[in-house]
Design a protein that fits this description.
Elements: E1 2-6, H1 11-27, E2 32-37, E3 51-54, H2 61-66, E4 71-74, H3 82-85, H4 91-98, H5 114-124, E5 131-135, H6 155-165, E6 170-174, E7 186-188, H7 192-201, E8 204-208, H8 211-218, E9 224-227, H9 230-236, E10 242-245, H10 283-291, H11 300-312, H12 317-322, E11 336-340, H13 346-354, E12 359-363, H14 367-378, H15 382-385, E13 388-391, E14 394-395, E15 400-407, E16 440-448, H16 450-456, E17 462-467, H17 473-478, H18 481-484, E18 487-495, H19 506-515, E19 518-520, E20 526-527, E21 533-540
Parallel strand pairs: 1-2, 1-4, 2-3, 5-6, 5-8, 6-7, 8-9, 9-10, 11-12, 11-17, 12-13, 14-16, 17-18
Antiparallel strand pairs: 15-16, 18-21, 19-21, 20-21
Helix pairs in contact: 1-4, 1-8, 5-7
């Protein structure tokens, strides 16, 4: 069957339609989906869409796609449906339900290929400061008035935002040449695909109800979006965004020209319900929302999309490992991370950037390395300091003092203190797997089991356990049997060939974790630079 989705509307409406396409394909997985719109470039690269045609590309359409074929046409306008007009239901849900499509909270999606991303990122990435991206105006080119109070952000309000952030951010202003400009803001008039990349690499975003806020939702980029009333918010807002609703009217409007919406979108002057533009929005509320990176209260789907986008654009070690979990595990509610064998606190820092609501506990037994962790901790901002704790202990299968074999940087060919372990190197293999000559010195450290530590520290559930303990992985896991019953994800090194005395290897780790309900995510397995050890991920079977 051919399913023809006909869209009469602007870029924002087309972006919202990508969520409808997702719902259509979920219900008709074998159907051939053809989209007809005025903006076919919105749908480029979308694997769910078999063909995207512009209105100017419809020659022989009847002959090719309709005549004598099994078809389902979806050409009605959701803007004219009762649920939408009453401001009760989001346009995507209305669009699905009016066509008999089950709505499963689908979100829009844009597909930007790597070549596009690299090309436009290089084009926009020359600024010395992070990017604050603003869209103040919507509307069609033929609109005679450059400003519509029902839709656009008053330029005086936008200018106050620019003035507030200009010292710390480079402000880019999405606008056409015929729209009002902002001082100390660089105008951007690029095409849609370039603007999508710009939205994806921007750091903060202030939008109106127009294409940019739909694109931000499709790209998993939480934004601050100003809307004239709650009706419009119900129709077009997304949970991942912070929606700023206009202040209550201060004057009685004359709604002579309003038909299926409270206010005419062109901004008819006699409908203006305020004394002046400065009364429409609370500037302090907008600035406070932009200064906050909190996305508390967002839906699971939008949080996952947000986290996925963060990971894709992060080149850190943690992000590169987390990429393997996309589509396999819900990453929307990561609250507790354990970084075992931290060495320098770098991975804890990387986790804190990605999971902004998570508590991270780092464990480092070597005194000198523990001090490095503290030094790095002290350089972090207060927000991260409040969420990260560093503990000068080793985790194992027994508690108490224990011998530990620290790499002596003064005597070794390189100062690879990360190869320190609770085991000695096998004679003749003191660093040769690394291509180095490493000399250990024996010290005494304090050890605990993870089960005991969690009881004392009131940790009831672990979302991610990150292990880098140089051959002692199984011992740490054996001391965490109860904790592991409430652990979601284990990201760890595993030994393949021993180079420490007592080195625990992958087959034993596999067997132990399988007995506790974990399975290895096979796609995550990768050698750690040589054939003695690898990185892999285990997840609870119910995930």
């Amino acid at each position: 069957m051919k399913i023809i989705l006909h869209i009469n509307g602007g870029q924002g409406k087309c972006i919202a339609a990508t969520a409808v396409c997702k719902a259509i394909k979920a219900q008709y997985p074998d159907g051939q989906l053809i989209v007809v719109s005025g903006h076919p470039y919105v749908f480029l690269g979308n694997p769910l869409i078999d063909e995207s045609l512009g209105f100017h590309e419809l020659r022989y359409f009847w002959q090719q796609h309709i005549d004598g074929q099994d078809i389902k046409v979806m050409a009605h306008d959701p803007y004219l449906e009762t649920a939408f007009i009453k401001g009760k239901t989001h346009v995507i849900q209305v669009w699905c339900e009016m066509n008999g499509i089950k709505y499963n909270c689908e979100l829009p999606e844009l597909y930007i290929n790597q070549r596009e991303r690299s090309f436009f990122t290089n084009h926009f990435g020359q600024f010395q400061k992070p990017i604050l991206l603003i869209q103040t105006s919507g509307g069609a080119k033929e609109q005679q008035n450059k400003y519509s109070w029902t839709r656009d952000l008053p330029i005086s309000v936008a200018q106050q935002v620019v003035n507030h952030f200009t010292n710390d951010y480079h402000v880019l202003h999405i606008r056409r040449e015929d729209q009002l400009s902002l001082q100390n803001a660089t105008p951007v008039t690029a095409d849609f695909r370039a603007l999508a990349v710009l939205i994806s690499i921007s750091h903060k975003r202030l939008f109106i109800d127009s294409f940019a806020q739909h694109a931000a939702a499709a790209l998993g980029k939480p934004s601050v979006v100003c809307m004239i009333d709650q009706f419009v918010a119900n129709q077009f807002s997304y949970d991942m965004h912070t929606t700023i609703i206009a202040n209550p009217p201060t004057c009685k409007p004359e709604l002579k020209h309003s038909v299926f919406a409270k206010y005419n979108i062109s901004g008819v002057p006699i409908e203006f319900p305020y004394n002046h533009d400065g009364e429409i929005y609370n500037i302090a509320q907008i600035i406070a929302a932009l200064e906050s990176d909190n996305y508390e209260g967002k839906t699971t789907a939008s949080k996952n999309l947000y986290i996925k986008d963060k990971i894709v654009h992060d080149a850190s070690m943690v992000a590169n490992r987390l990429k393997h979990l996309a589509g396999h595990v819900d990453l929307s509610n990561i609250k507790q991370v354990l970084d075992v064998g931290s060495c320098n606190l770098i991975q804890s820092f990387e986790f804190s950037k990605i999971f902004t609501e998570a508590r991270i506990d780092a464990f480092e037994p070597v005194p000198d390395s523990y001090q490095v962790c503290l030094n790095n901790y002290n350089q972090m901002d207060e927000g991260k300091k409040n969420r990260i704790r560093v503990h000068n202990i080793a985790l194992s299968n027994e508690a108490g003092e224990m011998p530990f074999f620290e790499v002596d940087p003064a005597q070794s060919s390189v100062p690879n203190v990360g190869a320190s372990s609770m085991f000695r190197f096998i004679d003749g293999l003191n660093g040769t797997p690394f291509g180095q000559n490493l000399i250990q010195k024996e010290i005494t450290v304090k050890a605990d089991t993870l089960d005991s530590w969690c009881i004392v520290n009131n940790v009831n559930q672990v979302d991610i356990l990150w292990l880098d303990v140089q051959g002692a992985e199984l011992l740490v896991l054996q001391g965490a049997e109860n904790t592991l019953r409430n652990t979601k994800i284990i990201m760890t090194e595993v030994g393949l060939k021993p180079y420490y005395e007592g080195h625990t290897l992958k087959p034993a780790i596999d067997a132990y974790l399988e007995g506790l309900g974990f399975k290895e995510l096979k796609s995550s397995f990768e050698l750690n630079g040589f054939d003695y050890e690898a990185n892999t991920i285990y997840i609870r079977s119910e995930n």
